[in-house]
Amino acid sequence: MNGETDITGAGGVPDPVTADLRLSVNGVPRPVTVDTRETLLDTLRESLGLTGAKKGCDHGQCGACTVLVDGRRALSCLTLTVTADDVEIVTVEGLADGDALHPLQAAFVENDAFQCGYCTPGQLCSAVGALAEAAEGWPSAVTPGLSAPPRLDETEIRERMSGNLCRCGAYPGIVAAVGQVAR
Question: Which parts of the sequence belong to the 2Fe-2S ferredoxin-type domain (predicted)?
């Protein structure tokens, strides 16, 4: 093989390359060993037993897998776990404070912002991230200008939440819940 190293295992399939990581998930240190090709979604669900983030499309198009990585929204189906070493990951399981619901969780219940509930964990994490972005003054595609903080009206909320799909069509409740917390 001209001095090249053979990295294939049985049947010509490459052997997995693993990495030892120190994840911090919902404030808890979680040491894991992962295949370097493994997504954060698979690590959360299969290795850590955190099944809140859902595998919807597995292509980053539906938002059901949205989690927060260092406070920013991330599609965990497109995020390689090896990129999450030594950062803070928050899943829907980490939003509540013990038995006290996160304000967005309570608002989702009050505004009937879910039907089947499959997209709800991603919607909640995305809403937390969207509100934080707006509070920091980050404009969206529909923010009228760059000099004033965004006003979280229905149009602004819909734009910021547009990467999260709901097959049941619970959008009016979702927008109302996010708006309630934004006020």
Answer: 19-95
Residues 67 and 113 in one domain: no
Residue 118 corresponds to which tokens in the numbers above? 């499959």
Beta pairing partners, 18? 35
d(CA 60, CA 33): 24
* Rounded distance between C-alpha atoms, residue 118 and residue 135, angstroms: 27
Give long-range contacts, CB 8 A cutoff, 24+ apart: 128-137.
128/68, 128/90, 128/95, 128/102, 128/104, 129/66, 129/68, 129/71, 129/72, 129/73, 130/73, 130/157, 130/160, 130/161, 130/178, 131/104, 131/178, 131/181, 131/182, 132/71, 133/160, 134/160, 134/182
Does 109 map to a domain? yes
Are 61 and 123 part of one and the same domain?
no
- Please name the amino acid found at residue 140: S
pLDDT 10s digits, 3-42:
555 556 667 788 889 999 999 999 999 999 999 999 999 9
Give the range of the structural domain holding residue 85, as residue numbers without chain letter.
15-94
Q: In this structure, which amino acid lies at residue 51?
A: T
Report helix, strand or coil for 21. strand
pLDDT (tens digit, 9 = 90+) per residue, 90-103? 999 999 999 999 99
pTM given for the model: 0.90
Tokens for 94, please give them: 């980490």
